[in-house]
Amino acid sequence: MLQPLVRRLRRASIRSKVRQAIDSGVGVYNGTWxxxxxxxxxVAALSDRIxxxxxxxxxxxxxxxxxxxxxxxxxxxxxxxxxxxxLGFGVLRPQDFYGNGDVTxxxxxxxxxxxxxxxxxxxxxxxxxxxxxxxxxxxxxxxLAG
Length: 146
Description:
There is one protein chain. By secondary structure, the chain is α+β, with helices and mostly antiparallel strands. The chain has helices at 2-23, 42-60, 102-116, 135-145; strands at residues 28-34, 70-77, 83-92, 127-134. Strands 1-4-2-3 form a four-stranded antiparallel β-sheet. A hairpin with a 5-residue loop joins β2 and β3 (83-92). α1 (2-23) packs across α4 and α2 (42-60) packs antiparallel against α3 (102-116). It is globular. It starts with a helix and ends with a helix.
């Protein structure tokens, strides 16, 4: 009878530590780009900037025991930080960001679709924002926290 109670308390403690780490910004990398790019260059320029930022962020991430998973989310942001459009890429690996990896292809498609739909050129759209979350950074923090 005591073992289930101990397991439940440990799970609650781990959840609390995870929540505290994420709330304090562990593993969270933010990037923001102005949408004032000439229309004919918009898709390529924004895609390249996001990929370049992603590569730099991936290089700074911790990868304890080879844990290199990340999650990428994009948002077109308008007045008062209102999200006009968002897209989550799910759980990814660093190799997905290089060459013709899944992220490279999908990112260009999404930016092109948002551009065709007028999302990027609307008067309400101010910037494109990306968040890259490192599961390795979170794991390292939790390992150090004990």
